[in-house]
Design brief:
Layout: H1 4-10, H2 14-19, H3 27-43, E1 46-53, E2 62-70, E3 78-85, H4 94-110, E4 117-123, H5 127-135, E5 139-144, E6 155-161
Parallel strand pairs: 3-4
Antiparallel strand pairs: 1-2, 2-3, 4-6, 5-6
Helix pairs in contact: 1-3
């Protein structure tokens, strides 16, 4: 909950709002968003991580992004990953590094339960997400048809396998 104010601040970014599946307009929205992340951890099917950066001269880290592992089910061979990066942290490799850490953690944690591949989905016009997928060795698999309202445009499916 200590990141709610920072979450509200970074969520004001128009580019982030364009691609985000949920909007955080104020502290109440931020608290609901954090509580949803906590419920995912408690249920064991969605694992969100704040991406923080140390600040020189400060005891608190700065929120620079988020990565999430979604739809994890024992025996299911695939799960989905997602991420976002705060505007002030873009262009510095934050998303690829955070996604790489999440990918390693996911396979280390869930491969014994049957996890074989991770799927990354983004709209076709989200070129930055396509670059993150490529940098993170998530191979392009296919174009997915639009599925409004969550995906109003066609999308790309990228896949990373456990042995990649």
């Amino acid at each position: 909950m200590e990141d709610v104010a920072a979450l509200v601040e970074v969520s004001r970014d128009p580019a982030l709002r364009q691609w985000a599946s949920s909007v955080v307009d104020d502290d109440a929205d931020g608290e609901r968003w954090v509580q949803a992340q906590q419920r995912g951890w408690a249920a064991g099917d969605r694992f969100g991580f704040a991406v923080l950066e140390e600040q020189p001269g400060s005891v608190r880290e700065q929120l620079v992004g988020n990565v999430v592992l979604k739809e994890v089910t024992s025996g299911k061979p695939a799960a989905e990953v997602g991420y976002w990066t705060a505007a002030h942290a873009r262009g510095r490799g934050v998303a690829p590094r955070a996604l790489e850490a999440l990918t390693g953690w996911a396979f280390d944690t869930f491969e014994a339960d049957g996890l074989e591949r991770l799927e990354l989905l983004h709209q076709v016009d989200n070129l930055a997400s396509c670059r993150v997928a490529q940098k993170s060795r998530y191979d392009f698999d296919s174009v997915l048809p639009a599925a409004p309202p969550s995906f109003p445009r066609d999308g790309h499916l990228h896949i990373r396998r456990a042995n990649a």
